[in-house]
Amino acid sequence: MMGEEGAGATPEPLESLGEQFSQEELRSSTRVLIMLSLGVNRRMSFSNLLRLSRCAKGSLSYHLKQLEGAGLIRVSTVFTLSGPRVVADITEKGRARFSELMDELQRIPTDQGEPGAVSS
Amino acid sequence: MEGGSFSDAKEEPSSSDLRATARNFLEFERGYLRHRWAVYYALWASTAAAYFVIQYFLDFTSFAALPTTVQLVTLWGLRFATSLVAITVSAQIWRLAERTSAVRAATNGHASLVVPWNLIRIAIVVTGLAAALLISLRSSSASDIIGDTALLVLTLFLFLHLHYAFRPIPPEGWLAASAFIAAGALSFVFLLEGDPRGHVFAWTAAVVVWFGCASYARFGVFDAAEDP
User: Fold this and answer.
1) Domains along chain A?
2) ipTM score of complex
């Protein structure tokens, strides 16, 4: 379940993680948070993304535009019984980036000094 | 979260930033997942009601005066429709639990959930064929036993998914799973003793508990904000 790397290692910046975040679209903890959430949930409403990120509306719109500009998510308005809603969906490119984020997360030693468990 | 540690500043991101972000996400996701799980409880409560409860109460109405074939087609149509919706939505929720479990595993070093999808597909086909055979033989108590067994197996999956997705399982999850196990076990006993009323009573209680769990998970846990 656990990899062979990292037992007892000190958490520090990883080279591959640095490559991930050298891309402008993920140079923000808020955008990483949004990507993690959309990677898991596939679709989130604007209101739930506000709750998740605890951003102001304008700030969240800015982050969503950055991610949409990079082709990682798609923002649209859908019509529901309770009225129109703004939703964000993850794209194929976004799913690939989410998988890379998960790989990075697994490589980081946990508090116990071991890498995260390998997922299914 | 606003202005997080590696927000637009050109600083080198650290691994602990990513882990902290993932933990923030998991904290939010716990409430969000409980909210989504409400649908799961409500759908399986409806399915259990369609299989074990509705027929008993319909016998006291003019429905009982209809030809047997019409009654059978109506009841099994309802059972088939609720099962189909419940299985389809459950598959989505199970996949959601699987993905959440993967993030939790990568973040905290826990083992992650690996769902045996092929086994589930085989179980659904075998249960469906057995149910079809029993319907054709018009053996209602045997089909109840198959339904009981299928729902008990489902409860085991429920426990697995709740455990891996939430860590720890939320109170309504414990209550829902315990109610299904108790109802399944009691109804087996009542069926073997030839007491259909006890069987109906056990499942009615479980259905009420599951709808209660659904309401609590939907309205009492996660206060979803309105869209601006």
Assistant:
1) 15-107 (1.10.10.10)
2) 0.70
